[in-house]
Structures are given as C-alpha cells and as structure tokens.
Amino acid sequence: MSAPAGAATTALAAVARFNAAFNARDVDTVMAAMTPDCVFEDTTPPDGRRHAGREAVRAAWEELFAGSPDGVFTSEEVFAAGDRVVSRWRYSWGGTTGGAHVRGVDVFTVRDGLIAEKLAYVKG
C-alpha cells in the first residue's frame, strides 16, 4: 500500500519539528511531537535498546540530555519516502576543544503528523 499524496511533505515537517525541539533539549515539546505509542531504538551496542511508549521514551531523552549536556546534533541530509524519513547526522560533545563526535542515521516513521518510531544507527 502506498502512502497518500503529500505524506512525504507532512513527514518532513514532523521530523523538522521534532529535531528543533530535540536540539533545544525541550523534552515536553519532543514528546508532544511523538505519538502516544511511540518507539525509540537507541544506538547502544550491539543492537540498541528499545524504548516503547511515552514514559520509556521520555526517560531515554532525559537520560541522554543529562548525560551529555553539551551534545549537539547536526543534520547532514534528510529525505522522505512517504511516511518514512531518513536523516544522516553528526552528534558532537565535549566542546570545541578536545571534543568528540559520531555520525549516524535515524529512520523515522511518521503517523498523523507525529513521530511514531525513531530507529537510530551509529557508525562505529
């Protein structure tokens, strides 16, 4: 079954709202951009941890922000196919001197203009 016309535009807008809230470290607005049954799979080796539902996903964001208070995500490329969005990114932490970074990819699923799923993968 194909996605309805305009789904890619809606999906890109949903991810842009999510990313803006994420980079502002605004957990309330991040969660408002996600569905009640949202899923986040993080990059913990070897296969990532799965966080399902609003409470678990919120806890994952709070843990990430607390553990890396100076972390910054930079989008390198974002594109959509229907209700799916792929985002290549760079995550930097540790300031401008002596800092570190990783690069990765997120695969989002958007439903009704909200993020239903965010699957994160990292180069390592």
Description:
By secondary structure, the chain is of the alpha+beta class. The chain has one domain: Nuclear Transport Factor 2, Chain: A. It is built from 3 helices and 6 strands, in the order H-H-E-E-H-E-E-E-E. It has helices at residues 7-23, 27-32, 54-67; strands at residues 34-41, 50-52, 72-81, 84-93, 100-111, 114-122. The chain has a 6-stranded mixed beta sheet with strand order 2-1-6-5-4-3.
Number of domains: 1
Query: Which regions have little confidence, pLDDT < 50, spanning 5+ residues?
Result: none
Can you give the mean pLDDT? 92
Instruction: Estimate what percentage of residues fall within beta strands.
Output: 35-45%
Distance between the termini: 35 Å
Strand order of the largest sheet: 2-1-6-5-4-3
* Multimerization status: single chain
Task: Supply the key terms.
6-stranded mixed beta sheet; 30% helix; 124 residues; Nuclear Transport Factor 2, Chain: A; alpha+beta; globular
